[in-house]
Amino acid sequence: MMDECFHENDYHVSRRIYSNRVFDQVHERQAQEIQSLRERLGRACGCTDKWAVQKIKGLLPILDWLPKYPVKQWLPGDVVSGVTTGLVCCLQGVAYALLASVAPVYGLYSAFFPILTYFVLGTSRHISVGPFPVTCLMVGSVVLTLAPDEHFLRPVNITGVNETVTDERLMEVDGEAREAQRILVACTMTVLVGLFQVAMGLMQVGFLVRYLSDPLVGGFTTAAAFHVFISQIKTIVSVPIHNHNGFFSFAYTLIDVSRNINQTNIADLIAGLLTIFIVMAVKEINTKFQHKIPVPIPIEVIVTVIASAVSHVMDLNSQYGASIVHSLPRGFAPPQIPNIALIGKILGSSFSTAVVGYAVAVSVAKVYAAKHDYTVDGNQELIAFGVSNIFGGCFSSFVASTALSRTAVQESTGGKSQVAGIISALMVMIVILALGPFLQPLQKSVLAGIVIANLKGMFMQISEVPVLWRQNKIDCLIWIATCLASIVLGLDVGLLAGLVFEMGTVVVRTQFPSCATLGNVPNTDIYKNMKDYKNIDEIPGIKIFKCNSPIYFANIDYFKEKLREEVGFDAVRVFKKRNKALKKIHKLIKKGKLQATEVRLASLGVENQAFEKEQVPELDEGASQPDSEVKVQVDWTSELPVSVSVPTVHIHSLVVDFSAVSFLDVVAAKSLKLVVKEFIRIGVSVYIAGCDGKALSFFDEEVTRDILFLSVHDAILFIQLETSTGNDEDPLAEKFHESIDPLQRPTRLHYCCCV
């Protein structure tokens, strides 16, 4: 008969029907090696020469890759890439300093110092380390909070013919004191960010960043791009506004800009808009013709050089009041010690910035690592960025991560290794030591335009929302919720709110898991959700129930509720109704209104072993018993001789598919044991498929390991064999007849199936 269903691509399976107990008897388990704590510590702390070398190379990856560096093949590409990327680093560093609310020269430092340590400690060959708009904005938010303009007001000195008079009614901002305090706040935060990252790396907790899912990071970075855009509007139009942070800060900024819009500097506005248009247009050309252009056009550099020259020749600052960079001194600032007194005020913001900076950097690094077939060590990246931020923070730099556009330039121009990064740092050093003053006439609106033009990639993430909605609505909601929260509440609180919302979706999805009734694909051992496919057969008398989630204390009640819905009856209620009907039948027999053979009545109660004791009705102890035994055989599907409505039980077996259940906690295990007993006492056999059985530590004389099967198909074949050879007596009635032996399950069977 099996041969009739065979086709050319079918195959034949012939093996035993395996319950878990039989499988363990036939196939011996691997012996589990149990080590004492002393042995584990000895193995963990044991040190060999090979182990020591591996650890040193792990902490200093440069010792591993530099001796193997193929100079002839890689060096030319690294030089071209390093020079090109270095020019972009200079301009982006100066521009992103505006986001951090510090002087532009500190942006150059931030594009130089972190690269030096990452060259030694980093494991990614392609990312360009330096300022990133999101982290810069997060630093700037803290800087403006702790060092606002209002803290540095001083009376204006009015110089007369013979003397200088101080007018207490007129106040001005002490620019030097403000800049000194702001860079101190930024450097202290950068060092603290680095300490957090190093600590996480040493504790090997890089995996925690995996909780920042792609939808969450996408929504957060899009919101950050929105905040960056709003923050640069004031620079583009060059109007005076107050500094705003926290809830609805973007709205207050827009209100201030709209109130002072009549003070717009036309020269700055034109320069800013032209910069945005030109940079975005040329970047689009670079993208469209990337396979035809050997090196992307460094449009930021070209625009900056031209804008600086125009501003210098036309003297835009004096003639038109344009806001320019002013001071970009040569050389490096001396190292400074962070202000420990500020740590308590910036602790939370520093931790969130550390997580965001690392998450973005490692995500970009893994993309290029997969593209070029090498691996990135997440924990070592934490240490590398942490040390880079500590080192940079001591030399007047702000938080380093990686910028997507800058990394794309480094990779697309032929960068092969970290050597491209160190060459880009040399280019930045040249600008710091020699070329910085040439950028002093540059308008700040041009830098703001460069920042806004580089936000296009982050804003384009909005196009992912419709795709996410079609693929997974919950992931789409995570994206939207994180984005809106970060826009409205600010980046720090918004990230936390998005993370809480994401964790909430995980809890909800496990607390209310998807459950289904499975049916059999004819002539196969395949079982699918009956709601998803046509021509799927439900096996008569057998219900196959599947739960697609771990089962634990939070969702066990939902599991039992869905199980009741799928089987179509409540086993406890059926038991109580049958018990009530049997007592009435017994009374009728006693009065002689019904005829029956003699047996002794016994209790139908089953003790509830769960944490919440459920009282199960039993036969009344005071009820009079017949003088002789009466055998009671009840057909529960037919009309009963008593007026008791007993729910119909249309199945004789229940198979619970646990193949998608990863774990059960102690509460779920005890409740599941109760569920199994509830079905057994009404005559429904319960079998569990796809479960190893180690988590089910509830077996006893009534619920044995024989209910466990390797697969749903094993359980179904076993049930079919059992029903074809078993007895037809009602198991509930058997409780009244003590002479019935328990069912002996066969353990050595063979089957064939066509699939």
Largest sheet: 6 strands, mixed
Poorly predicted residue ranges: 1-5, 597-629, 727-755
Radius of gyration, in angstroms, nearest whole number: 37 Å
Using the alpha-carbon principal axes, give the shape.
Answer: elongated
Question: First CA to last CA: what distance?
Answer: 14 Å
* Share of helical residues: 40-55%
Structural commentary:
The chain is elongated. The protein is of the alpha/beta class and 755 residues long. The longest helix is centred in the middle third of the chain and has 30 residues, at 343-372. The two termini are 14 Å apart. It contains 28 helices and 14 strands.
Write a compact overview of the structure shown:
This protein is α/β, with parallel strands linked by helices and 755 residues long.
Compile the SSE list and pairings.
Elements: E1 12-16, H1 20-26, H2 37-45, H3 49-59, H4 62-65, H5 71-99, H6 104-110, H7 113-121, E2 129-130, H8 133-146, E3 153-159, E4 164-173, H9 175-202, H10 214-237, H11 249-259, H12 266-288, H13 299-314, H14 316-320, H15 343-372, H16 378-393, E5 401-402, H17 404-412, H18 418-435, H19 444-453, H20 456-459, H21 464-471, H22 473-489, H23 491-511, E6 515-520, E7 527-529, E8 542-547, H24 556-567, H25 571-590, E9 597-598, E10 630-631, E11 653-657, H26 666-680, E12 685-689, E13 708-709, H27 712-725, H28 731-734, E14 750-754
Parallel strand pairs: 8-11, 11-12, 12-13
Antiparallel strand pairs: 1-14, 2-5, 3-4, 6-7, 6-8, 9-10
GO cellular component, one term: membrane
Subcellular location: Membrane
InterPro entries: S04_transporter_CS, SLC26A/SulP_dom, SLC26A/SulP_fam, STAS_dom, STAS_dom_sf
